[in-house]
Amino acid sequence: MIHYNDKNKTFHLQNDQISYVMKVDEYGVLSHCYFGSRLPRYSNYLSYPVIHRDFEVDFVDQNQKTKRDWSLGNILQEFPGYNHGDYRHPALILRQMDGSSVTDFRYQSYEIIKGASSIEGLPHAYVDSSELAETLKVRLGDPIHSWFVDLYYTVFRNHPIITRWAVFRNESAEPVTIERMASFSLDLSPRPSEIIQLNGAWGRERMLEREAVHRGRKVYDSKRGTSSHQQTPFMALVSPNTTENQGVALGVQLVYSGSHELSVEQDPYQQIRLQAGIQSTGFHWKVEPDQEFATPQVVLAYSEDGLNGMSQAFHHFLKNHLIPARFRDKERPVLINNWEGTYFAFTEERLHAMVDSASDLGVELFVLDDGWFGKRDWDDSSLGDWFEYKTKLPHGLKGLADYVHSKGMQFGLWFEPEMISEDSELYRQHPDFALHTPGRAKSYGRNQYVLDMSRSDVQDHIYHQMVAVIEHTGLNYIKWDMNRHLSEVYSSAFPYDQQGEIAHRYMLGVYALMSRITSRYPEILFESCSGGGGRFDLGILAYMPQVWTSDNSDAVARLKIQYGTSLMVPTNAMGAHVSAVPNHQTGRKTPLASRAAVAFYGAFGYELDFTKLTKSEQSEIKDQVAFYKNHRTLFQQGTFHRLLSPFEDDGNLTAWSLTNDSQTESMVMVFQVLRKASQPLQVLKLEGLKSECQYRVTQVLGEGAWGATLSKEEGGPEAEAMSLTDSACDDSNSNNSGVESGFQSFEASGAELMKAGFYLYPQVTKDFVGRLFYVEAIK
């Protein structure tokens, strides 16, 4: 998979799908040649031309000879330095003791390693067998000082993926400070390009935004101490004609959960530089002699099959090489979380009633959210006091856990391990445990402070508290939340000249705690959360196989949120729940069936109080749960295709599908937000089927009715329809009085379904209608 041509000094990383080519030029600069679809061989013809450009700084080699027609400011580099003639953004800035900052690294050696190398203290991709990947380590060195940069490139046998990261090593006699170090830098030849990013805010995470790449540098970053709701550490460089199913897409994801910085830069000659890494604002890292610093990993995906091709490359790779292997094929349970059903106002009796109803409806996991610990009756106390609140739970957590387990269900708890309340036993004993700058007031966020997770004693304290609760209750699931961002970042555990390290050390401490807990309890299902999707990134997924996608559970809002999130991660990593109406975040009333139709395409569950529902609503939920279980493998393991985008046209129609590996069945969701007068007919084209295969398309959910339960155990669709009631917790019947009528059922070839499509008919007569179509191969 990795080939080195000593004559031409070229490295060619390849598998059956992609090639990545680099060259060591005559001056020792590691230059970029190619990244794209597979080249059977590389002929060394694509060397950067010798060209003189006015007002570029001439290159000076190690012998002080000037090269007039060659400049670092022009060429395509793999890891550009600083203050040496390249005026584009550098990958590395170092500060010496005397204040100088010239960064100039040249090629020294290489090593090819079987498998995927690990990164100590940081999340990273893995392989089950060393035969599935090869890693190239290229060492660059400073010509004057004993400084070295090791660049790592891993190519995987079955994926159009390259992972990259870098390690700086100081073998000089003096300390040196890193002021900026990117995980990767990639220079590309001139090409018309557009950039896709995912931005947002609380309750509207990962909004897809696409624009042309213009002259200059554009940065997508977070300075919040987390990957954030506001800017996900993802970007994709695409051709202007790239669609979901055709065109070039180069995706970039950072395997990191802290403050980050991704950028795209176009120079005056239309060359493009992509970079990603730790946020450089406020960052500096002191590297003592014989010490080293490693960057987070970055994952690069290449597709010529559009954005769906890029996303599927990410999805398949993450399932097999990043998300914990023990959850790769493991079924995720249908859960009920009590949060929006009770908030803090629960009693043991009320929880028992919720458990009883959940058990009757077929739910498999009961999760007790915030409010079970310390003296927690509101969000202004007790974080850090991870012991049971006996006033609320007279029989303790063990009593509740035993009750849940006696119903044949699993039991889960909410934790916020990284936070501390001022009104807590922990703060009264250890006020120094909170991140704070001496002499400055501490800022509140959600009535809480942030623990100094850079300190091992803080990590140990929280670890032992969590272990005690887990051992006491026999937990099956943990929701790990993080409800505020970092401020006044300073640690009394480190000297003044290392305070620029604390934000990153905080993240390293969180990873260390996550690693200890998840390694000790590999059977526990962990779900990450940060005020919803405020820390949804590959760093978290390396420890926890699913993330609460957003606190906004409104079905309409979730169309964009889940669509955008699907660019980067598989659907079974996205927590998705059916909640009550009016929705607690938007106030919108949507049909219960439509909420389920959207939530099925995620780690599925409920977030409401079943005991407040009518009998007919409970009956419908029981049918939803049974339907999901019957098709759980398809919903959790299928290949995802985006079909109609809520970000295009007027956003009124969204469609997506999941298809099994053998392409014998697919589940298609179509959601229409508003009914419109005299609306045109819509043709839906499917993806991911076999052209030559014949399929039966059966509408199983539509406006006001289920067409069939599609129970596999009973051999196919049931004839009897299940009428849909109105929305849970809504006493109005204005939105959902329809009954089953005009459901589509027909047969067609895969070629017809993908190339010609089919009419979405009859048209819906109400707002907020989700439809499901089951596509099954018949011959």
Count of helical regions: 13
The CATH superfamily of the largest domain is identified as: alpha-galactosidase from lactobacil brevis
Shape: globular
**Main sheet: strands, sense, barrel:** 10 strands, antiparallel
Q: Number of folding domains? A: 3
Amino-to-carboxy terminus distance = 39 Å
Q: How would you classify the helix and strand content by structural class? A: alpha+beta
Mean pLDDT: 93
CATH architecture of the largest domain: Distorted Sandwich
Oligomer state equals single chain
**What portion of residues is helical?**
10-25%
Radius of gyration using CA atoms only: 27 Å
Describe the structure.
The structure is a single chain. This protein is an alpha+beta fold and 779 residues long. Strand 37 (694-702) and strand 38 (705-706) form a beta hairpin. The model is unreliable at 708-741 (pLDDT under 50). Strands 8, 9, 10, 11, 13, 14, 16, 17, 21 and 22 form a 10-stranded antiparallel beta sheet that branches. The protein has an 8-stranded parallel beta barrel with strand order 23-24-25-28-29-30-31-32, surrounded by 4 helices. Strands 33, 34, 35, 37, 38, 39, 40 and 42 form an 8-stranded antiparallel beta sheet that branches. The protein has 3 domains: 2-322, Beta-galactosidase, Chain A, domain 5; 332-418 and 460-488 and 524-637, TIM Barrel (Alpha-Beta Barrel); 638-707 and 742-778, Sandwich (Immunoglobulin-like). Its EC number is 3.2.1.22. InterPro entries: Aldolase_TIM, Alpga-gal_N_sf, Alpha-glycosidase_related, GH, Glyco_hydro_27/36_CS, Glyco_hydro_36, Glyco_hydro_36_C, Glyco_hydro_36_N. It catalyses: Hydrolysis of terminal, non-reducing alpha-D-galactose residues in alpha-D-galactosides, including galactose oligosaccharides, galactomannans and galactolipids.
